[in-house]
Amino acid sequence: MSDLLKFDLLSASIALKNKEFSSLELTNAYFEAIEKTSALGAYLEIIKDHSMNMAKASDKNINNGTSRPLEGLPIGVKDMFCTKDIKTTASSKILENFCPTYESTVTQNLWDDGAVMLGKLSCDEFAMGSSNETAAKGNVVNPWLKNSKMSPGGSSGGSAAAVASRSALAATGTDTGGSIRQPAAFCGVTGLKPTYGRCSRWGIVAFSSSLDQAGPLTRTVSDAALMLNSMAGYDKKDSTSANLEMPDLINYLDKGIKGKKIGIPKEYTQDGISQDIVKFYEKSINWLKESGAEILPVSLPHTKYALPVYYIIAPAEASSNLARYDGVRYGKRNEAASLDEMYEITRGNGFGEEVKRRIMIGTYVLSSGYYDAYYLKAQKVRRLIKEDFDNVFEEVDYILTPSTPTTSFELGQKQDPLTMYLNDIFTVPASLAGLPGISLPIGLDKSGLPIGIQLIANSFDEPGLISTARALERSAEFNFIPDGAAT
Amino acid sequence: MSNKNTIVDIPTVNKIARLSRLDIPEASKQSLTNDLNNILGFVAQLEEVDTSDVKPLASVTGHRLPLRSDEVTDGNIEDLVLKNAPESSSGFFVVPKVIE
Question: What ipTM did this prediction achieve?
Answer without folding.
Answer: 0.94
